[in-house]
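[09:14] KT: can someone run the structure on this one? pasting the chain below
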Amino acid sequence: MPHRAVLTEGQRDALLALPDTELDLVRHWTLSADDLRVIVSRRRPHNRLGFAVQLCALRYPGRLLRPGELIPNAPLAFVADQLDVDPEALAGYASRGPTRYEHLDTLRDVFGFRQLSRPARAELQAWLLPAALATTGGAELARMLLDEFRRRQIIVPGITLVERMVARALLDAERHVAELLTRKLTAEQRDGLEGLLVPHATARTSVLAWVRQPPGRPGRRAFSAILDRLAALRVLRLNPALTDAVHPERLRRLTGEGARLTAQHLATLNPSRRRAVLVATALETQVTLTDDAVLMFERLFGQMFRRVERREEAALKRDRRNITAKIRLLARLSDALLAARSNGDDPLAAVERVIGWDELGSEVEEAKRLVRPDPLDPVELARSNFPILRQIGPAFVQAFTFGAVPACLALARGVEIVRLLGTGRLRKLPADAPVGFIRQTWRRRIGRDGMDRRTYEFCVLAELRDRLRAGDMWVEGSRRYRAVAQQLIPAPVFAAMREAGPLPVPLPGSAAEWLAGKREVLARRLGEVATKVGADALEDVSLRAGRLRISPLKASTPDEAEGALAPLYAHLPPIRVTDLLADVDRWTGFTGCFTHLTTRRTHDDPRAVLTAVLADATNLGHARMAEACDLVSQRQLGWLSSWHLREETYGTALARLVNAQHRMPLAALFGSGASSSSDGQHFPLNRRAQATGAVNPHKGSEPAASFYTHVSDRYAPFHSKVISAGAGEAAHVLDGLLHHGADLSIERHHTDGGGVSDHVFAMCHGMGFLFAPRIPNLSARRLHLFKGLDPGPDIAPLVGEAIDEELITAHWTDVLRLMTSVRTGATSASAMLERLGSYPRANGLALALREIGRVERTLFTLDWIEHPDERRRATRELNKGEAENALKRAIFFHRAGRLRDHGLQAQSHRASALNLVAGAIVLWNTTYLEAAMRHLKRQGRPVPIDMLAHLSPLGWQHINLTGDYLWTEPATKPGQLRPLRSMLSPPLSRAA
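[09:31] RB: done, structure tokens below
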């Protein structure tokens, strides 16, 4: 064994295993005519078969057969069939000792196989380094090395040597990356990096831990602290270009180690590696702090407006009776004056009949006191928020370098003026300070003479916030607030991709082709729906006088379904959640996905990994889980969480469960596997974490976080993401569809109203997904048609402005570049949708995307109106997600389901663990429901097949989710299931 193990036992066995699937056998073990001519020269059948098997093994997996090795039936039969020989003949092969060695000599001489020599090993070791620089996975690197062995026809000497070569390549790659990151450092920079490991002057941690602290609750002190930490890193003057030559995977590993290793651990590393980790961590932390600072600036500025809104709401609530009385008095006076005018009476006498003059004077004075200034008056906002503006405004513009599109050059100049005023280089506001970027309503209120420094700074900062959201201005050194163009594939690269061949998106190369096709489809669908509307032939839909009404759906589950399906759950055995997870792990081996960040090795005890997962999934936490479980301590759980439980390992483990669920025969009755839905589930934050949350008034009055989850139509949760409770869900729909890692082929996706926007319709269309949301208040949404299309008198009242074909044509290349960037992973759909949706009035790409989305939404609306099956399908799939949310609420029950974590990473771990445990319960339930179904069939009480479509694997009454979390030895042998409840038969096989 090598000193540094990089492969697990399972990986070692798999790498050199003989092929056993039909696809692999056809690909690797098919014999050519030349092969057969050499093979048939062997005189006896057993020698021909043994020689052929030796030849196939040398080609794939590339090794010699071990003496006495048992050849599996599948590959043996495959070769024997090609030779027209009985597979049993192999038993007589090499009965004479020298025969096998003679055959090996012939194989080397005739087919060119050779042993691994020292020069060849040195060449392969050098060849392996570039590959090792692009990956950190030992198994992946070993597969690449074996492929090269086979290409060069070098006989693989054994897995031990292969692992030793891979380990050396990984070590050489680490040293090479460390050299790239540190060779240009000055002595001052090296000393500064080492200074990150010393204790901070005021904090009780190292400087490195201090700069990596979470941003905390939005406030002036927290904002100032972020800038202080950023300044401490900028003192190092590290060039971000240092990481340009390092593969992103290598960089992620270094930053991951920097996030997990303490200063004491880092101090024990050799100097070169320690500095490499510190360089990567410092540069990544600078980017994170930059994003945190801009985000906090956004929130602080937003708080100003929210305070005004709350103050106005409170005043309106306080004075509503007086205001109502004044409005009633105004109505009475108006009626009296109008009547007097109509009758020719004295208007003053009419007023006196309503109210006396003295009383009227009192009412007028009271009405004047009720009049409140404009809540969005920039002068008043600048005056009332002057203390916080003076603290965050100049500091913000001085701390960062901003870029701008040509349309925002005036604002960029205004930002520079604010910076000069803050540094004292300008004493007063210049007379020619640009004001064209200020909102027209604000300019009219201020006037040129009323513009002072305080008001000008407020207007600049308010507009800067909006433009940063939209991407019209950006912050150098930021990831979240980069220029939109920097987030996309570079224009020259995209042009080369477009010229080389079809782009990886299902869109034509020209806008004219797309527009012509959509015009034809829309005209046809419009005519079909209009015909049915005229004939009143739409099911449960009424469209009269421009008013669209869709009747609520009737229940699709028959009344007898509950009674027919109840016996299935009645037979499920009671089980602890710990034993359930252990069962699923034995079936799928998903704990093997939780590899160590550095060594990529799995943990020795899968139960310890499952305990750490449960601690997050149940919201129990490490301390209480250690008390409730007799397996691991709190420190061990913390170590496991830091080094083995990561987003990528959670994703790989979840994908394994999803794939297993979709292979279940019973799951095929739940759905086709081609549809999915997504929805957000709110989890309130406790007092400790409320500073990082947001309030969604539609779902409660407490700060909360939302776990946005994608669920397949076979009940498999395949993606989860933590988003702000106050953020829109629409931007995150595509992330789960594109980046889930499971073997799914999703074609149709459903959301509720929170996931709907025209941009999402357009992006889903560009990615090849059919977006089918349940749109609330559909009658209020306008249809959009191409110019020249006649909707008919019944549909015409629902039609809004026409599609802007010229806008789509002008930005078609930008649309294709955006779609290709998202599809290839150059940027995320959520990042782009948040940018494009935040301030679209000046962004041509956002407007073009909206027009494309309007076309797709109009086509979808026509389908929704005409086909009741569309409405039923969307409701059915969304109900699955809501039912899964109920299961997750039952799992996540500790601390009343409140999140205590104030960091996004910790909250993401909770969401991922909760999704994983829910997926395991779904798979376990499906497996045992299948067994119960077979059992009832054997007893002559089969469940009607049409009822199984209404069965849900989300029940948890038989699962002990609370109490102790103890681990027991497996109650069944491998391949067997636990006895069903009330069963007298022996344990069932999973395949029975």
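[09:33] KT: thanks! Residues 983-987 have pLDDT under 50 and may be disordered.
[09:34] RB: yep, looked fine to me
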